[in-house]
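Shipment paperwork, digital attachment
Item: protein structure file
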Amino acid sequence: MQTSRHSRPQSANSPTAPAGRRQLGSDLVPPRWPHLAGLALSGLGFAVAAYLTFEHYTGSKSLTCPAGSANGAINCLKVTTSVYSIQDGIPIAVLGLVFFAVMAVLQSPWAWRSDRRLLGAARVAWCVVGIASALKLVYDELFNIHAICLWCTSVHILTLLIFVVTLFGSLSWSTYRGQLLDAEEPA
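Attachment content:
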């Protein structure tokens, strides 16, 4: 049973129940976790990218790595000031800001609820762009710079987690939409 705004009981199968929410006496509820997890991870990624952008434009004077030394394998300053920290004249950290800002929009509740397939495809495609970029940056750190930045690694991990959330979220929403179509078919 569902209660309306005026506290009158309303059956989920009644003609006045919201369209697409009727199925065998129970309401179908869209999965909420994809946009919640996606937005949280995008926000964290944006915060780290903002910190790295700040450090880039202030000369990396206060950049601190949680571990490592100036000449060790973990060296954020060496990574963030290398020739690989800029692509086509744009700092990688700024590109990270753009990635996470766009991803936050694509992970928003309205974007997940949208019936536009192009939006879902854009979300997955943008994740693939993020993963490809992260893999290229990890390669540069390991084989060209010979140092690892833990702040950058956190961005790479967040990007991977967003990719996983997006894939499983897309499957979950696909299942939900399939159930909606089944519920709307006349018996």
